[in-house]
Amino acid sequence: MLSHLRPALVSMALFTAVLGLAYPLTVTGIAQAALPAQANGSLVVDNGKVVGSALIAQGFSQPGYLHPRPSAAGKGYDAAGSSGSNYGPLNEDYAARIKADADALRADNASPIPVDAVTTSGSGLDPDVSPANAERQVARIAAARGMAPDRVRAVIAKATQGPTLGFLGQPRVNVLKVNLALDAASRTEQRPAR
User: Fold this and answer.
1) Which of 45, 136, 151, 168 counts the highest number of beta carbons within 10 A?
2) pLDDT (0 to 100) of residue 191
3) How far is residue 193 from each of residues 86, 150, 154, 189, 190, measured CA to CA in Å?
């Protein structure tokens, strides 16, 4: 029996050392050297303070901010509860939620509602909205901030990214980056002229 136990223990120790320690440390080291920002969570820093991640949505609801897609993650934008709702398109609760969200959006603005303004993403934490969704929010943001709509559009246009590698996916607007840029633009406009 001892002759069978020894090779098993040696194999377990070897594979634990190689696959449990050496491999993860090597991959982590390569990631830190090659892509440090991504390896550390694509954190967004504003005035020396981490304010979020470019990869995880936050629940902006104030009128002067670009609003993200609805979230099904936990109790809303909870990264620990990342998931979709798993509702199918014929589910009554899902249809009722979309109708209520669409009615609220129509009360605010009569323009057409982009699909991503009322549907959640697979993770429930999509940090981006479509350019059409961002454009639909321009009037509200401009009015709340006392900015010209064209100025808000310029901030959004600067933060709009094209498809990945030029052909994968759709154009998108990162909500956190736009909101930080809007705050910076508002501070700039409020400075007294010298």
Assistant:
1) 136
2) 54
3) 53, 21, 22, 9, 9
Identity of residue 63: P
Which amino acid does the sequence have at 178? V
SS3 75: coil
**Domain layout of the chain by residue ranges:** 1-40, 42-190
Helices of type H across the chain: 2-15, 23-34, 36-39, 92-108, 131-136, 138-145, 149-159, 175-190
Residue pair 120/85 in contact (Cβ under 8 Å)? The answer is: yes
Q: What is the pLDDT of residues 142-180, one digit of tens each?
A: 999 999 999 999 999 999 999 988 899 899 999 999 999
Q: Residue 42 and residue 54: Cα distance in Å, rounded?
A: 6
Q: Determine what percent of the chain is predicted with pLDDT higher than 70.
A: 95
